[in-house]
Amino acid sequence: MIRVAWLVARKDLRIELRSRVLLWQVVPFGAMALLLAGLALGPVHAGHSSAGPGLFYLVMLFVALLMINRSQVLEATSGTRASVAMLGLDPAGVFLGKALALCVELWATGLVLLAGTVLVLHTALHGAFLALPSVLVTLAALACAGTLYGALTAGGEGAATLLPVLCLPAFAPLLIAGERSFSAALDHGGLWEWWVIVLVALVAYGGVGILLYGVLEES
Amino acid sequence: MTSGPLVHLVDAVVFANGFPLLSGVDLDVAPGTLNVVTGANGAGKTSLLRLLAGLVPLSSGEGSVCGIDLARGDLRQLRRRVGWLGHEGSFYADLSVAENLRFCATALDRPISQIDVVLERVGLRARANTITKQLSAGQRRRLGLAWLLLRRAELWLLDEPYASLDDQGREFFDDLLADVTGAGATVLVSAHDPLRSARLNVASIHLAGGRVQRDEP
After folding, report:
1. Which of A53, A58, A110, A198 is the least buried, fewest Cβ under 10 Å from its Cβ?
2. Cα–Cα distances in Å, from B35 out to A117, A126, B49, B86, B162?
3. How far apart are CA A210 and CA B142, in angstroms?
4. Mutate which of B56, B79, B82 to test chain A, going by most A C-beta atoms within 10 A?
5. How far apart are CA A74 and CA B87, in angstroms?
6. Domain that holds residue A20
């Protein structure tokens, strides 16, 4: 399973490096969204607003949806789907590999947008550093949930429409917990209760994905 | 090697979205033979090959491929033993020729050193570092062949492989199929051209209305 996961993750990341969709499309989109959020708040409120963590996660949600779609599109043509199916890869390994690649992409984007939050929304740099571990874990849980729901909608008509609708109930608790832990880091408050929620979600979505990805692929 | 027929279907029926793609196929294919599947558009050629590849489920009837039951067997295991070449693009467009083959070889535990050998065989050695989406349709066909050669599959299922090939490519393809069957593999190849089986001097499996009519060469 680990060998397959590594193989699939390397393949997805290599395709991403080659196509540069993340670099030229996704990251600029996220940066633009953050900038617009800062402009919408205005110069006075942007500097003093507590909305920074929430806006960061809202933009990350949009970015994650784009990247989940992209991750599934790589396998979407029926020819590629059949060819890869003929390799008889362990579906648990495929799930882990795709989730890992998506996670790395989300982390890279998240770091850029976190820096953008500090620059554009004037979020405290020290607080952003404190929030970094919880951001990374939250994005990892988003990657697992997104890979699972991406497979659920893959190949179907209107997948791009269905994906956000299906993801919303799964993403909402993650975003709330992520935003709360980020805010707690800025206020030097307690982080553990929010960490627990995110870690449980990470383990739950990872476990469900490992168990069910094969069924989703076959269907 | 499986004793008896490598492919065995009895009254095999395949439904998709309530529509019968195959409506009672009886078929035996002996190991080490080259077979051409012919028929009009919509006759069920692709569906038959996809059934044998374990890509679509058997709705009713009986069937086995490489000794694996199509209804109750491990289809993932079957897929590892069967080579499939569809008529659509089958590779990651943003990976190079060599990267696509390396992915396949690693997944199937085949030696990476074989990649150069199969690329030489299909005439793509000079294109090893070319991004797949920059290949012509005919070159992508050859990449598909390289993928199959790398797999060393017991059963080759080729769906319209002659499309997009020039005369030289078709001759190359015919020679290659003769070689692999000579080496013990079994090949089923679908073709629109009814003369293809005569050119290959093999039996054709003629499909009409989702059923098989078998002709002798």
Report:
1. A58
2. 64, 70, 12, 16, 14
3. 35
4. B79
5. 18
6. 2-218
CB-closest option in B53, B90, B131 to A79: B90
Least confident of A120-124, A195-199, B149-153: A120-124
Alpha helices in chain B (DSSP H): 45-52, 75-81, 97-107, 114-122, 137-151, 167-182, 196-200
Closest CA to B136 of B112, B174, B166: B166
At B84, phi and psi to the nearest 5?
-125, 130
What's the predicted TM-score (pTM) here?
A: 0.82
Under 8 Å CB pairs connecting chains A and B tally to 62
Write down how long chain A is. 219
Overall number of domains in chain A: 1
CB-based contact A177:A198 (threshold 8 Å): yes
* Angstroms from B85 CA to nearest CA on chain A: 7
In chain B, what are the domains? Answer: 7-215 (3.40.50.300)
Q: How far is B217 from chain A (nearest CA, A)?
A: 31
Residue reference for tokens 């396949």:
B104
pLDDT at A107 over 80: yes
B103 neighbors B115 (Cβ within 8 angstroms)? no
